[in-house]
Amino acid sequence: MEITMDYYTRDNCALCSEGLLQINLALQELRNVNLNLRQFNIDEDDVLQEKYMLRIPVLMHEGEVVQEGVIDFVQVYDYIRSETGN
């Protein structure tokens, strides 16, 4: 099963790096899920920076915020599992 998600980050963001690690850990448990993770650096786009500056990292799926601020394994795992039927 494939799922596409958007991940809004910025350079030198420890929470963003930790969030990416949590996403990858969740994917290791969901072996039959192929995640297309589109990453966006908010510092490269004024509109994104204004929208997400105080919220990053932000993980979204189909325009819905899955999690923001602190990304954790359980939330990511449960969300992807429910969306993919695993």
TrEMBL record:
Protein name in UniProt: Glutaredoxin family protein
Classification via Gene3D superfamilies: Glutaredoxin (3.40.30.10)
Its taxonomic placement starts with: Bacteria, Bacillati, Bacillota, Bacilli, Bacillales
Q: The organism sits in which domain of life?
A: Bacteria
> What InterPro entries does the entry give?
Glutaredoxin-like, Thioredoxin-like_sf
